[in-house]
Amino acid sequence: MAFVVVGGGLAGFTAARTVRSLEPGAEIAVVEAEPAPYYLRPGLIEVLAGRKTLAEITPFPRAWFEHRRIAFRSGVAAVCLDPRAHRLCLSSGEKLAYERLLLACGAEAVQPEVPGVHLEGVFTLRSAADAERIRTRAEAVAAAAVIGGGWLGIEVARALHDLGLAVTLLERGPWLLNRQLDEGAARILTGILADLGIEVRVRATCAAVLGTTEVTGILLADGEEVRAGLVVTAAGVRPRIALAAEAGLATGRGVIVDDYLATSDPDVFAAGDVAEWRGHVYGIVPAARDQGEVAARNMVQPRSVQYPGTPPSNKLKVAGVDLLCLGNTQPQGGPLREMRHADPAAGRYVKFVLGEDGELAGAILLGAADLAGPVEELAQAGVPAEDDLKLLLAF
What we know:
This protein is an alpha/beta fold. It has helices spanning 10-22, 44-49, 62-67, 128-138, 151-162, 183-196, 242-246, 285-300, 372-381, 386-393; strands spanning 2-6, 27-32, 70-74, 78-82, 87-90, 95-97, 100-103, 107-109, 122-123, 143-147, 166-171, 199-202, 206-211, 215-220, 225-227, 230-233, 237-239, 255-257, 268-270, 275-277, 313-318, 321-327, 337-343, 348-354, 360-366. It has a five-stranded parallel β-sheet with strand order 3-2-1-7-19. Strands 9-16-10-11-12 form a five-stranded parallel β-sheet, covered by helices on one side. Strand 23 (337-343) and strand 24 (348-354) form a beta hairpin. Helix 1 packs parallel to helix 8 (285-300).
């Protein structure tokens, strides 16, 4: 059989590796628009800060694919998909025939719709080339601004600070990481960033990017100006659905898939940041890995494995501090109860959300990596855990 994977990120890589393990004799091609082979995208922050090279976040070089007879076509984009003819057209003019195809083309960065956002010196960080362009610009300026107080924005701000720039982090919401953290945890995180020397502004809406040909600063909605010779926008991402939509596949926010991760065409599957399952686009690393494997198994043996969903859990390092968020971290009324302990001086915040039967329904661990193992176990168990959680809270 002939399998084609569009996208060489985590979902696509996982799928190609899984197909090869299940079908030793299959033809497998991976098409990736970026020139670099598969790398760990979260590691781009380390590359931007100069702490690692691209090679150091590239765990599987081209030789890995060659050894497994996986044709890795990098630096070439998929431009046209014809599901009826089972054919994929590439920007190189080549046409690939397939029996089953996986869309794992990920997501693209969203630029805020404000005047001046296309000036020289305004960037997004989504690729290795982006990281290199930002580093080059950082060598020529003294101050930077980052728009967006999510994980990526916070990490970009820290990386630019580590490069020696004065950095202002702008978040239009009431606090940083407002989808993951509650206000108490965000207050401690903001203090950690302030101690590093990063200025944080919340409820700060960008009205315009200032400059003529290149950026000189940001105008806020309240009339204040933030001076910056480099701006990075981290305002979220959108799934790359154009290829699927033009092919006539069902799309919503992402490419719509069923419980087997098949699209509206039974021979085309989708996984990772581009896939919309039961109305949800995950956009997290664990889901990309899970979906890549499930999709691959169903490409080899249709309807053999159902995707059960991926628990909403993020384990990250934010500004050098370990952060684990899982389940419902910000309950809005109802039968859920909360237990918490805050130690701002130590940069530590622990919060547990208990369900109606006393089970662990959600948790925030900031600067408390020592609790991550037992907390994850209790969350997976789904049993009454209040006494155990009280003990953990006392640590």
